[in-house]
Write the structure tokens for this entry.
Amino acid sequence: MADKQDAPAAVAVVDPDGMVSGWSEGGRLLLGWTTEDTVGRPVTDLLVDPPPPGFPVGYGAGPEHTGFIPLRHRDGSTVDAVVAAHPLFGPDGRALGHAMTIQRWGSRPVIADRAFEQSPFALGVYDPELRFLWINASSGRVIAHSEEQVLGRKYREVLPEFDRSLFPERDDKPYTDQLSEVARTGKPARLITVFRPLGSNYANAWATSIWPVRDAEGRVRAVANWGFDMSAEYWARQRLLILNEASGGIGRTLDVIGTAQELATTPVPGFTDLVTVDLFDEVLRGEEPPSVAAFTSGETMVLSRAAQHSATEDTDLAPGPTTPVSHTPGSVAARCMATGRSTVELAAEPGQGGEWAFGPGLAADPAHWPPGNPLIDESIAADGLTGRITVPLRARGALLGVVAFSRLDRPEAFTADDLILAEELTAKAAVAIDNARRYSRERTTALTLQRSLLPQGLPDHEAVEVASRYLPGGAGAEVGGDWFDVIPLSGARVALVVGDVVGHGLHASASMGRLRTAVRTLADVDLPPDELLTHLDDLVLHLAGDLQPGGHFQPAGESGATCLYTVYDPVSRRFTLASAGHPLPLIVSPDGTRTSVAAQPGPPLGIGGLPFESTELELPEGSLLALFTDGLLESRERDVDEGIAELQRVLNHPAVSLEALCDTVIDAMLPDRRTDDAALLLARTHALARHHVADWDVEPDPAQVPQARKFAVDQVDAWGLEEAAFVTELVVSELVTNAIRYGEPPIKLRLIRDTSLICEVSDASNTAPHLRRARAFDEGGRGLLLVAQLTQGWGTRHTTNGKTIWCAQALPQSESRGCRSPP
């Protein structure tokens, strides 16, 4: 069999009577027949099927005219071959027969050589000394040389620019050295090569592969490479890296000037060469920026140059007073601020980059430009600019200033993607600058800061009715670090959180804001209460390690923080809680009795190394939950136990609403003169009506998927939600199929009709699915994408017995009411 795979072309001579008169050694290697076997026999004996009409005459019209013929191997197998017959003539012109060449179908050069030659990728083969042996047409267009011009010449001689590194500071090897290393070691390499051709200031990015070419004995006889221009993809990724850098580099301090300087330095020099940031004086002073209506009067706008950074010269502004900058009504910056739209100016019409030519390789596609862009303005070349992007600096509907991104003497023009990047960078900076402005204005007002950090309004939720109060210390006291939160979770559940940071002032409030954000982030992962506190404890430890007591700001107080995290499930009426050094909640049953909580609080946050424990209770519907901080209980007149007894007594007072009950508790529990802040969160539990929950055990068999779909559609129809049936059927099919295919039994499908229609599929596997982008010919990978597009939200929560994949569909308000169980 090996002989047949490696057989060269065979040659046969056929006389005018169709008898074989000559047979080459290649014929024996290809078909197994020897000269003695074939000479003197009809050539048709080699055929599997009857010969075509006129065979072999019809196969000699020319070198490009070949025929496909199945031939008989000596062992009885069939060899698919390409046969070409060429007529033979004597000196007198008399026909002597035909010379036939026989080659296995698909072997070189008929198929392979043409495929390689016509490949759109650049292909090349070089000897171990890197002398050119062969290149295809695409490679010739890339290097601007024909095959005849480069054969036998060394790679370094033809392409000297590849013999140096574009980024020596990264210790990148020149591409020529990569070829030599593959030839020396025999190990293939795959890499992305970024280089700047001679005579060009533009760097190209190529995806390349290099591999050794070995002979039958395994010796490296040559080196081959292939590559394609991926400049578009490469620079798109560089834009993402700049955005990622901006996410961590912009807004690190609550300082307006500092944030403007971070915006100016982040995109230089990877994206642009010069950045200027101009802000209104009101923003620098921490005041509200002027209204947009003031920009339509046609007056000159006077701003202050808050930051400037250049890659070519030292033009950065030193810390200190800013420089006034005027923008006349007709200027591009003034128009951008007045209209709220960005503008791209180019010194010349952008060129059309060739598909394979060195250079940008990309044209500025007009179809992707927003209206009015780009503007061709040759006058900017007088300032040494090849292009400029001007973006209004806006945050939360307010105009803060304007940012200009300029390129100096770069050959490539800005593209529509560059405009998007500039707007993204500006948007990130705008939020950070506005935060800094707000901080500088509000840090002297403790109550305003407290309101900005605590929830502005508690969400409506079918599982609980909630009300809350926060009171800072007495008049003149700084705001503290007490906080609370209500976080909707998957499966109609809700998390009730309360915490306390030791200390007062801005530092305690900032610490409280960080912890509340971290809890919200961890709650989105749907961790159990004990695991969530463990992760929160780790976070506090990391934050404590970053403290700098010798700096301008005093240390934050996360290491003295406590937190109580609870989760209530209205389906099972289960209430799960875990405490990190925080007082346990007070639970009052509907009959007025206190429900004891058999749990011990864990250590405060920041201790590390000690476990947190969860406690689970089953609550009657209508139970009253009181979560609070120690400032509500402690006073000079009573201890903690007396405070809890007093709180229970007050909670048993009749009240028309939880809001009114909150006021009653605050009036009864807090003295007029207090030195500590206090937070109170009251929640009345509700149970989801049993007929609004449906579940079904699914056998781990793909044949069960249609049954699951039918179960879901029937249940949705029974709830009167026919409009949601199609989407429900689709998501149930996808989630159940994934659970059967990738999960482990037992598998359960559950539908919940709450304020939204929730679909849950649980299995015993701990592997979590990931949303990914399926390629054109992938058979899978689109299910979760469909679920994500068709539903309001989806996610994964891990349980002690596996995981649950859920998704939620929004319901009309009229359809989402009345889900609680009847009294």
